[in-house]
Amino acid sequence: MIYKKWQRYSYTAQRHQRHRILLALSWIIGVFFLYLFISSYLVFSFRIESRSMEKALTVGDIGFALSTRLFPKDEENSWFPYKRGSLVVLEKSFTTERQSWYIRLWDNIIDFFTAQQINPSEDPKRLFVKRIIALPGDEVSIINNVVRIKPAKQNYTLTEFELSGVAYDIIVPENTAAAGEELPFSAQFGPLHLNEGECFVLSDDRRDCNDSRTWGPVPITDLRGKPIFRYWPFPRIGKL
After folding, report:
1. Residue 133: per-residue pLDDT
2. Does the pLDDT at position 182 exceed 60?
3. Residue 14 and residue 20: Cα distance in Å, rounded?
């Protein structure tokens, strides 16, 4: 008790106390900026909140995605990470207004201290996990729920599975006739030609999920990353 009372009136003890506080704050700020760098340019986490990507990803799945901000956005480059059939995390904005820097900083602070479990209610951007079906220059069409692609500079069409570098399952409407001819979820679509810098993404659940059938072609600049590893739930842990 005497020692603590002495600390209260000691300039040296108070200086040491301020030093410890400043050191702790410096560590927190340093870790925060390290988090910003890693999540922006290296690896970030994502969480699945809908059934649109079943069976590959289900509600509650949490994983890591490779940030592709530093990758060249050219599919002919050997470092280009996007291939037909690849899972991608895209960031889509539902407003034309640009957020101010301090709002973006506040959003990042909330993400940091809540482990990305709380999204600011006023954040106009959302992350979606979809699958790339076609790349710039391709032509996409859907006939009776079968997706066909004419690769850029080619005269033939192939199904999405023939061009995909990975195997995956999709869910289509059981009653094709019930889908009708109305977009976005009809059994027929296109043909649609993709311009330079555009790609076509679909959900694995093709019944009533938002994707390029509702949004149209997605700019490659909207693709934020590529899912690489699922770490939760534990029984489903593994590479994606």
Report:
1. 95
2. no
3. 10
